[in-house]
Amino acid sequence: MSIDRDTAARVAKLARIKVEEDALPALAEEFNNILGFIEQLNEVDVEGVEPMTSVTPQRLKRRVDEVTQGDMPEAVLKNAPDSREGFFAVPKVVE
Model confidence over 35-77: pLDDT tens digits? Predict the structure, then answer.
């Protein structure tokens, strides 16, 4: 797959990234480099390889799932910039 200047402009618009017209060819080339790297990765045989989250074998530390102090909404909301009816109040972001 090859990304041209128009496709790079469309991707930038969808991502809501302002890209100057003269920078679009370089962006398209960067996208092509990324896609080339992905194609390279797709050529690797990973049959029988277990998925991992780190290159070193380790287990994440987990805390005991136990009930702690609760039922104190006043203390939780004490430092909130705005709260209403026992909940955090945030500005509306969707119209």
Answer: 999 999 999 999 998 888 788 888 888 888 888 888 888 898 9
CB distance 24 to 5 below 8 Å: yes
* Gap between the Cα atoms of 36 and 1, Å rounded: 9
Mean pLDDT for 88-92 is 92
Spatial separation of the C-alpha atoms in residues 35 and 41, rounded to whole Å? 10
**DSSP codes joined into one string, 2-65:** ---HHHHHHHHHHTT----GGGHHHHHHHHHHHHHHHHHHHTS--TTPPP-S-SS---------
Does the global pTM surpass 0.90?
no
Of 45, 74, 53, the closest CA to residue 87 belongs to 74
Please work out, in degrees rounded to the nearest 5, the angle formed at the alpha carbon of residue 13 by the alpha carbons of 91 and 29: 135
